[in-house]
Design a protein that fits this description.
Blueprint lengths: L3 E3 L2 E3 L1 H11 L7 H39 L7 H10 L19 H4 L3 E7 L3 H8 L3 E3 H7 L16 H18 L11 E7 L2 E6 L4 E2 L7 E7 L2 E9 L2 E7 L4 H4 L5 E7 L3 E5 L9 H16 L3 E6 L2 E6 L4 E4 L5 E4 L4 E5 L6 E6 L5 E3 H18 L12 E5 L5 H18 L6 E7 L2 H4 L2 H7 L4 E6 L1 H11 L9 H4 L3 H16 L7 E4 L8 H7 L1 H5 L4 E4 L2 H13 L2 H14 L6 H4 L13 H25 L4 E4 L5 E4 L1 H16 L5 H18 L17 H11 L10 H17 L1
Parallel strand pairs: 3-12, 3-24, 12-17, 17-20, 20-21, 21-22, 22-23, 23-24
Antiparallel strand pairs: 1-2, 2-18, 4-11, 5-6, 6-7, 8-9, 9-10, 10-11, 13-14, 15-16, 18-19, 25-26
Helix pairs in contact: 1-9, 2-11, 6-7, 6-19, 9-10, 10-11, 11-13, 14-23, 22-23, 22-24, 22-25, 22-26, 23-25, 24-25, 25-26
Length: about 725
């Protein structure tokens, strides 16, 4: 392939054409200017990127050496902390400050709600997530296990008993979110109507009743004498009661209610990173094209569902009239973040003169911001940010110097694109150990543009294991969440965020509910994220977003955050750094019998193989993968990082040997093959271990995992996926 020379760099022809023919038209930026700016940014930031990666390697080498030197010495936490400070791993905290980020949309700054994370490489999924701003409560309840199924359905597959339970559940929700005066229940309502610019609620008795707070009613759809929907608001979230007396569902309800539509996924992270498998220029351009479609508002997807061809597009805004019959709109789409890649990965979209791939994260910063210009300058119908802000999440940053690097990179991109300073808002993923221990300094490094922090148990655990690999054998994965460090990690993230002024200015997020088929359990457990003070938390699907939205009606997160701030201010000592630095070591190997060790190994290997085989063979970066008990779990590279690093750790410290691991790999490959027997285009591993690139990738991740930078899985996965694509193209 003949690369195109531009200002000292070699550009992939397909990337060159994509930028020139699809992205630049309409932006008043010339091709020459763009490629000149790209070359200047690369020249300035590649050396910094490389230096930061070398710092990671240097710190890890020193930590490994320290643990080896203290192998037969009783662990001294004070000496360990002093050592981390001496080498520059642990830095002094800045003085107290508050972030100054401006022009942050209310969905991010002021309204608490669910957040979706979705693979941007898949247009259908990207559209589903963008359109998940509004969701049917009836559908979410009926299709999930929140209400138990009794399997008694009519010829059309509808269970009327279950339908009635859904309606009752929904009315109970209305009683909680938009209560009527005098403790009257919405179950007693026979009509919602409008008279004299007022909401009129009529009961079965013929009496009329008002909302406890009349200001919760915001408007309606349809004709004033026969509205088709009534709009309300609670804790900043809208809900829409749908009315249709002529529909089957409406006829079964005293008030002709056919559904309750909830404002659900307020924000979505369109992911270029952990949840996709973009390994070359062809893949990456597809990712950028989907982002371009979202920003222009013309992304579409056509697919087969139930034997029918279905087309999907971005939802338009929702139109209402207020009490005085004036029109107003609400966004029909989730506010979109985009997650760029981290500092480690490189891309063949652009090569240096000596044919070295350039850092992919630098390309992401410029290209995704460039594409977002279409939304800022484009059709108001599909406007993402009302303030013309661009939201970029930066993952896998190690400490404040890497955050400062990203801040400077964004500033340089803004200057090139003619954007006001700090137009690009930064999301900081608190998922690496050096970021966690220096979180306040990380936030300070981006204090004028940070709009988001969150915890990620999966990557954070992977880095916990890798950083302290030489310290000793780690506890089993199953009990890792009970360790001292994880409690400190989750608590500190909220505390430091609030103390740095995030309340009413930025998001504090929590991680993913990973079991999409267990919504009843999610409804029981995920409310804990709100109680902890987080104003957003990740969910795996639009259905989960609608159900999780109920939690934000149950609890007022703004009040919880205020209570936490008061609690922090009354504490004498708040430094839980020592807890955070407590390594989750297995205190006594003898407590584990051979069967327990084998079970832990098989569990790790099965999950690893189940994910890797789809990644390598089919390019699926995120999906619901059956675990060893056949429970579907959302898997991405973060879960893979834990599994591979945990096996590496137990191998290193003698709980496992190579023969045990190989036996488990082969045994679990057969299990995974059987679990995927009905998956279209699946290629079994166990029929030919030697030539299965997926199986070989799994071996690499284990036996080469200790030497991988920070324990990341991407380099090995990319290598094998490229090989698989070459084989596919050769057929």
């Amino acid at each position: 392939m003949q690369m195109i020379e531009q200002f000292g760099y070699k550009i992939s022809p397909s990337f060159y054409q994509f930028i020139n023919q699809q992205v630049l038209p309409g932006l008043n930026i010339s091709s020459e200017q763009f490629w000149k700016d790209l070359a200047a940014i690369l020249g300035e930031f590649i050396p910094q990127n490389q230096a930061l990666l070398k710092t990671r390697e240097s710190l890890q080498s020193q930590i490994d050496a320290w643990h080896l030197a203290h192998k037969n010495i009783a662990f001294d936490p004070n000496a360990y902390e002093m050592f981390l400070r001496e080498i520059g791993y642990l830095l002094e905290q800045p003085a107290d400050f508050s972030i100054t980020t401006q022009q942050v949309d209310p969905e991010v700054a002021k309204i608490a709600g669910p957040q979706l994370v979705v693979p941007l490489m898949n247009a259908r999924f990207a559209l589903n997530a963008a359109n998940a701003r509004w969701g049917s409560l009836y559908d979410a309840l009926y299709s999930s296990d929140v209400i138990q199924k009794d399997q008694k359905t009519d010829q059309a597959g509808y269970d009327p008993t279950r339908g009635a339970l859904v309606q009752a559940y929904a009315k109970d929700f209305l009683d909680q979110a938009i209560p009527l005066e005098d403790k009257v229940s919405h179950k007693e309502v026979v009509s919602y109507s409008i008279a004299n610019n007022q909401l009129v609620i009529t009961l079965l008795s013929g009496d009329e009743v008002k909302l406890r707070d009349p200001n919760q009613w915001r408007g309606y759809q349809g004709k004033v004498d026969s509205p088709s929907a009534f709009l309300f608001v609670h804790h900043g979230l809208h809900l829409d009661i749908q009315i249709d007396p002529n529909s089957a569902v409406g006829k079964s309800d005293p008030a002709s209610v056919t559904d309750i539509i909830l404002e659900s996924a307020l924000t979505t992270i369109q992911d270029c990173e952990d949840s996709i498998a973009a390994v070359d220029a062809e893949d990456k351009i597809q990712v950028y094209q989907n982002w371009l479609g979202l920003m222009k508002g013309d992304l579409s997807a056509t697919f087969n569902k139930g034997g029918q061809t279905v087309s999907r597009h971005l939802n338009a805004n929702r139109e209402y009239r207020d009490a005085t019959h004036n029109c107003f709109n609400l966004s029909g789409r989730s506010l979109q973040f985009i997650r760029n890649v981290g500092l480690l990965m490189t891309s063949d979209l652009v090569l240096t003169q000596d044919n070295q791939e350039v850092p992919e994260g630098i390309l992401d910063a410029l290209v995704t911001a460039l594409i977002a210009l279409h939304n800022i300058k484009g059709n108001d119908q599909f406007k993402n940010s009302r303030y013309a802000s661009i939201y970029i999440v930066k993952p896998k940053m190690h400490g404040p110097f890497e955050v400062a690097f990203s801040d400077q990179l964004f500033a340089r991109v803004e200057a090139c694109l003619g954007l006001a300073k700090n137009t690009i808002k930064m999301g900081i993923m608190d998922e690496e150990r050096r970021t966690s221990v220096n979180l306040k300094a990380c936030i300070f490094a981006a204090k004028d543009r940070v709009a988001f922090i969150n915890t990620g148990f999966l990557d954070r655990t992977g880095d916990e294991i890798h950083t302290s690999m030489q310290a000793g054998a780690m506890v089993r994965k199953e009990v890792m969440k009970n360790e001292k460090w994880i409690t400190a990690y989750e608590d500190r993230n909220v505390r430091i965020g609030l103390e740095c002024g995030f309340k009413n200015r930025a998001q504090i997020g929590k991680g993913m509910w990973a079991i999409p088929d267990q919504m009843a359990a999610m409804m029981q457990e995920k409310v804990a994220h709100l109680k902890a003070g987080a104003n957003c938390a990740w969910v795996p699907s639009p259905t989960a977003a609608t159900l999780h939205a109920l939690h934000y009606h149950q609890l007022n997160v703004a009040q919880i955050q205020e209570q936490l701030l008061n609690h922090y201010s009354n504490q004498n000592s708040r430094d839980d750094l020592s807890d955070l630095l407590t390594i989750p070591l297995l205190m006594n190997k003898q407590d584990l019998n051979l069967q327990t060790i084998q079970n832990e190994l098989d569990n790790n290997v099965q999950g690893l193989l189940g994910y890797v085989v789809r990644w390598i063979d089919q390019g699926i970066g995120c999906s619901s993968v059956p675990d060893i008990n056949n429970i579907g779990r959302m898997e991405d590279r973060a879960t893979l990082r834990i599994s591979s690093q945990h096996i590496c750790n137990w191998l290193l410290h003698g709980l496992l040997d190579q023969a045990m691991v190989l036996d488990s790999l082969k045994k679990m490959a057969r299990v995974v093959d059987q679990q995927n027997v009905n998956v279209p285009h699946y290629t079994p591993m166990a029929t030919d271990f030697e030539h299965s690139l997926a199986f070989q990738a799994a071996k690499d991740l284990i036996f080469k995992g200790q030497e991988q930078p920070s324990g990341y899985t991407e380099p090995l996965l990319h290598q094998r996926r490229k090989q698989q694509k070459q084989l596919n193209n050769a057929i």
